[in-house]
Amino acid sequence: MPPTVLLLAIHVLVAVIWVGGMFFAYIFLRPAALTLETEQRVDLWFETLSRFFPWIWGIAVIAPLSGYALLFALFDNLEQTARYVWIMQWCGWTMITLFAITFVAFYREMAHRVKKRLIPEAGLYLNRIRIMISINLALGIGTVITAATGRFW
Ligand code: HEM
Predict the structure, then answer these.
(1) Nearest protein CA to atom 7 of ligand 1, as residue
(2) How far apart are CA 109 and CA 70, in angstroms?
(3) Which residues line ligand 1 (CB under 6 A)?
(4) CA-only gyration radius of the chain, Å
(5) How many domains does the chain fold into?
(6) What does the pLDDT look like over 112-132, one tens digit per residue?
(7) Residues 60-103: tens digit of each pLDDT
(8) Domain enclosing residue 92, as ranges
(9) CA 149–ligand 1 middle distance (angstroms)
(10) Contacts of 29 (CB under 8 A, 6+ apart)
């Protein structure tokens, strides 16, 4: 397999895992979890996010690395880069920044409170995480559409 094809495969795969994971969480798991009592709901989300977020840290490294490797393989220099790749690049960095803020400012605080069984306080941080994920989900969907259709406009 040529290196560019492999890079594109890795890049698209991590994008699908990230955006698809957020879509599943927001559209399917959230309404299902709302049927639970607060304590069970907070525990379910904590157990889910503590498995999802380490993957996103990996993706936050692999997506830009594979993206820039592709960029320099497909375009001679940054000035020649297509507009849709610029949009993807900046949406990507915004998503990574929002994820890092979510993890450091909200998820870690939530984790402390879950461990101390301060469930209502943990729920407040969970709500902030939900808002951040909804923003990143919208950005991620926009980024995938831009990336896949950009060559036609
Ligand atoms: C962070 C910096 C990023 C850079 C530098 C970057 C760069 C690139 C480049 C150069 C391509 C190949 C474009 C082409 O084939 O014409 C590409 C493809 C793609 N990127 Fe990114 N990307 C980044 C982040 C992201 C993110 C965050 C997502 C989605 C959440 C994403 C989704 C995609 C998809 C779906 C494609 C495949 C498009 C297609 O060939 O149909 N990228 N990216």
Answers:
(1) 67
(2) 37
(3) 11-12, 15, 18-19, 63-64, 67-68, 70-71, 74, 85, 88-89, 92-93, 95, 140, 143-144, 147-148, 151
(4) 18
(5) 1
(6) 999 999 999 999 999 999 999
(7) 999 999 999 999 999 887 777 899 999 999 999 999 999 999 99
(8) 3-152
(9) 11
(10) 48
